[in-house]
Amino acid sequence: MKITNEQLKEMYFTMLKIRKFELRASELFAEGKIPGFVHLYIGEEAVATGACANLREDDYITSTHRGHGHIIAKGGELNYMMAELFGKEDGYCKGKGGSMHIADATRGILGANGIVGAGHNIAVGSGLAIQHKKTDQVCVCFFGDASTNQSTFHEALNLASVWKLPVIFVCENNGYGISVSQARHQAITDVSVRASAYNMPGITIDGNDLFAVYEAVGEAAARARKGQGPTLIECKTYRWRGHFEGDPVVYRPEGELEAWLKKDPIPRVEKYFVNNGVMTEEEIKKLNDDVDKMVEEAIDFADKSPVPSLESALKDVYSDIVEEGRVR
Amino acid sequence: MASIGIIANPASGKDIRRLVSHATVIDNNEKINIVERIVLGAQALGVKKVFVMPDSYNMGYRVEDKLNSCNELKCEINVVNMQRFDGMEDTVKAADYMEKSNEIKCIITLGGDGTNRAVAKSIKNTPIITISTGTNNVYPTMLEGTIAGMAAAAVASGRFDESKYKIKDKRIEIYKDEELIDIALIDAVISNDVFIGSKAIWNMDTIEKIIVTRSHPASIGFSSLVGCKEIIYPEDDFGAYVDINSGNEKIKAPIAAGVVESIQVSEPVILGFNDEYEFIAEDRGIIALDGEREVEFSKDQKLVFKIRRTGPFHVDVIKALEVAQLNGFFKL
Amino acid sequence: MKKMTYAEGIREAMRLKMQEDPDVILFGEDVGKFGGCFGVSGDLWQEFGDERVRDTPISEGAIVGAAVGSAACGIKPIAELMFIDFMTVGMDQLVNQAAKMRYMFGGKINLPMVLRVPAGAGIGGAAQHSQSLEAWTTHTPGLKVVYPSNAQDAYGLLLTSIDDQNPVVFIENKVLYAMKNDVDENELKPIPLGKARVAREGTDVTIITYGRQVYDSLQAAEELAKDGINAEVIDLRTLFPLDKETIFNSVEKTHKVVLVSEECKRGAYTGDIAAIIAEERFYECDAPIMRVGALNTPIPFATSLEGYMVPNSKDIELAVKSLF
Known about the structure:
The complex is a heterotrimer of chains A (328), B (332) and C (324).
Chain A: H1 5-30, H2 45-52, E1 60-62, H3 68-73, H4 78-85, H5 118-133, E2 139-144, H6 151-162, E3 167-173, E4 176-177, E5 180-181, H7 182-185, E6 202-206, H8 210-225, E7 231-236, H9 256-261, H10 265-276, H11 281-304
Parallel strand pairs in A: 1-2, 2-3, 3-7, 6-7
Antiparallel strand pairs in A: 4-5
Helix pairs in contact in A: 1-2, 1-11, 2-8, 4-11, 5-6
Chain B: E1 3-8, H1 17-20, H2 28-44, E2 49-52, H3 59-69, E3 76-79, H4 88-100, E4 104-111, H5 113-120, E5 128-132, H6 145-157, E6 166-168, E7 171-176, E8 179-184, E9 187-191, E10 207-212, H7 223-227, E11 238-243, E12 250-256, E13 259-264, E14 269-272, E15 277-280, E16 285-289, E17 292-297, E18 302-308, E19 313-315, H8 317-326
Helix pairs in contact in B: 2-3, 2-6, 4-5, 6-8
Chain C: E1 2-5, H1 6-20, E2 24-28, H2 44-52, E3 53-55, H3 60-72, E4 76-80, H4 91-104, E5 114-119, H5 134-138, E6 144-146, H6 151-163, E7 168-173, E8 180-183, E9 197-200, E10 205-209, H7 213-226, E11 231-235, E12 238-240, H8 244-254, E13 257-264, H9 269-281, E14 290-294, H10 303-309, H11 313-321
Parallel strand pairs in C: 2-3, 2-4, 4-5, 5-7, 6-7, 10-11, 10-13, 13-14
Antiparallel strand pairs in C: 1-8, 6-12, 9-11
Helix pairs in contact in C: 1-6, 3-4, 7-11
């Protein structure tokens, strides 16, 4: 598969944005700046990045509760994301969604989602709309290993296959459904084998290898754009943090995280860049500094954004109805 | 009676070739079924101990549980005690453990060409029986587990003339600065791909050269590009290489499951056991070994390819069982 | 005046919208060549073909989800569930996704989808094919809920629902499907949501109802008239948005209210309307606000039990009389 150095650098830039956004989100949550639940994507950056690098602005994605990475990879802007995490007026959802519900329909981001497995069927709907309009768009549906035990997984893969919809099901197998390891939540190791039950191709790849993800989703997207139907791609990866920030993570066997830290997708790309003359170490350092700055700017933007007005709580339930508020 | 080893690669049979070609899907539950039948076949003919490579799906333990629950386990199943990395290194390490063990006299592998290549990195003397559960299966064969278990028992018994069934295979050795950096059992493919990525290789556009230990039209994968011009048998004391997209003759060859490509291939150049093929890279690229992108090289790098009969010993299962039968192995 | 069945009203509205707008599609279980379990989609498949009238697998989650996803991506799906009872299978997509997406996303997405759901008892469907679950939908901010009682309204309300930018749950009463009503051809046009209809004018008591109970209420009103009680009957037509203006105008005139629906009374939407009247027009009422509904049981199968469990015109009559 052909790829230019510019594309490679763009992907690396995306991975850095995700990593650094998430690291700072973790700190800000601990400081009490971010309320609610935050599920971080650290360690899984290669999946969202490699997948979305194959997408156009008019393609769609559905995401999960662990959605920051997908949204950044699909072009979401850090300022509006951070403002949303802060619950501020300039956030993507005007402070009404929070971490788990960031969406940007103008970029085809059909929303992070607080319900495990809910994105599967929404992605099918997106595929249906694409098929109806006869365009060559695609929808990438991101989900975790645990969501493949929801009925929606079966419903969605079945219907997507029956209707040959342009949906790429990208499973981020990070080994856990909250605290329950994959071995304890399903009697298979490779989610990809479920694809054969729906008569669609299913493959397993190293989800911490940016190139592997890029290539596999690229092939699946090409297939989908030609009207050849859906694909299931299982990306083996690992979440470095707990299920949510504040999770004491009592369930990991000793040494497991350490083994995965060695498979960190970001240094793998950096090593490749240096070895192959894509970027020098100085250029890498500079880009890291630039992204650090971007994230700090996003935090500053979020800080300065006003808290939403109380009246705004009543808006956006419907396109055309605003009910009366509480009198105080 | 000595023991046998089983290396079942949990990752075989699910790579990107299910997407870009029409390759078979083999899930791990099917591999468990096969391992079960190996154990049942082997224990019936006297094997007392079976060593199994550990893997993320715990195939060894699952087989033990399953056979215990139906009261059919008569031998001991030992999952090798080693640290797992859930990658190819597990296969290499488990094979190394089994090679060095004094008890294990035959190893059964479940995988494709890639799996057996990993085993071959560690194995020198212990004979292997290969069951194909992979994608491109030139080296391993379609084989019923029960029969493989019985043959392994016959081999491990040490009672028969091994020259009747044991065959030393060829391999391709790749040297960089006179250091052996990697091997392949069937083919090495030089491509101008720029990254390893999803490992498998299938795209003809990027391929420049193919080096083979053997070649046949009946061999799925890139070695068939040579095989469709010239057949080289496992027992021939030479291999060959060809240039792709060069020469003026187009041939058709089964480069992947369900993919028969038309391609220009140069006349094969025979590489004898005393020959060396020197490759100097014009640009960066990748070498795929037995179907998987493995080795990155940079511009101007010099690599040397040698074909030698330094591969593993494999067991001709049919011959082994024939020898066993002639010597009364199946009599109660 | 022309005669039209309730089912025809729904079908003709779909036909017109599908003719007008190529992005309107219909899907659901057996809506294609089979014509719908209750025959509602009829010949639409013959007219619009496989791509626009799609049979789905029996996967209610996927049916509702496909409506949500496709509406979010710019088409106008009409999804049919065979029974409102099956809505429970697709409830996450309806309640957590469809109803909340616009709000969660800060108002930056439109969901022009209609979910058609046949409801109600009366055909021996027993506990899992007869429920009246409208309160589950009216309880959920973000959904609009429509419940027509006749062909003319079904037609006009569905035209509006399909064009609405919000998810609309369009509840159809399956006993009414075959009922023929007079329709005014000059009035076969969109009816705005949130506008109730005064089905019978009266001065002494306001009966607020919708769906099949409109007919029971009208019958009760005729009986009551014989006893000198002149009842006003309001057909809500839309449950949300609720036409409070029409309700309050009537209450201010009659000062007595009886609410009627087929829901079991516990947690019924009529309770919510009663509370609204109590909160906002308590001093207009000179009698307790009464409710008539089904008993608090699952719907039984035997015809005799089913008939006992669901309210009829006699129950309405008794409730009204208790106020005088």
